[in-house]
Prior knowledge:
Blueprint lengths: L2 H21 L4 H9 L18 H11 L4 E6 L2 E7 L4 H12 L7 E6 L3 E6 L3 H9 L19 E4 L16 E4 L14 E7 L1 H8 L16 E4 L2
Antiparallel strand pairs: 1-2, 1-8, 2-7, 3-4, 4-6, 5-6, 5-7
Helix pairs in contact: 3-4
Amino acid sequence: MKFPVIIPFIISLITFYQCQLKENNISPAEDIISYEMPVKKEIKKAWDSLNKNNVTSFFKEYGQQNKDTKVIIKTDYGNIKIKLYNDTPLHRANFIFLTKIKYFNTTVFYRIAKNFVIQGGNSDNFQTVKDRYKYGNYKLPREFRENRKHKYGALAAARSWKKNPLKVSSPFEFYIVQNRNGAHHLNNEHTVFGEVISGFSTMDKIAKLKVGVDEWPEEDVNMEVEILD
């Protein structure tokens, strides 16, 4: 029998192992736990999961968690304060969402139609293009309301008029009615989802800027949009 030879060898291995643990400041118990009890990572909903196939469900949930209704649009010509309507919930939630991810801060008022509207929410900035690509250029279902008209100061969603029988809205581009008589020929054509509550003089200043043949101002009108309440 060879036990007398094997036993000293086993004792030396155990001694060596214990020395290694002490050198690395690890107890045997800790060593075992690290293998038997793996740490589970908490899974959180990613808000960048928005895509063209889950628009309604996404913004219903987002709107329930983000009930803000007032924003401010800051420009070099002054500020415009906006109240968003709760009865157009998808458009309200979308505007709040884009504000909170700071999408609008890379955009400009890119169209000034004299005595009609000032339109913003787009630009040739690379970050603007990147953000729009990230969310797949989704569309918003229309939310027409009989009590939401294109009055002076109305905030409405831009949309394509070609191949758009359902009159779905662009989520990124918006306009404000600058004509004091309103733009009522657009009622039930575009979703009105808010209104200006202060800053009408700022609108007038922007409306007087010189534009090119495409109604794009010769000097960019940059904006920053922030949540007020």
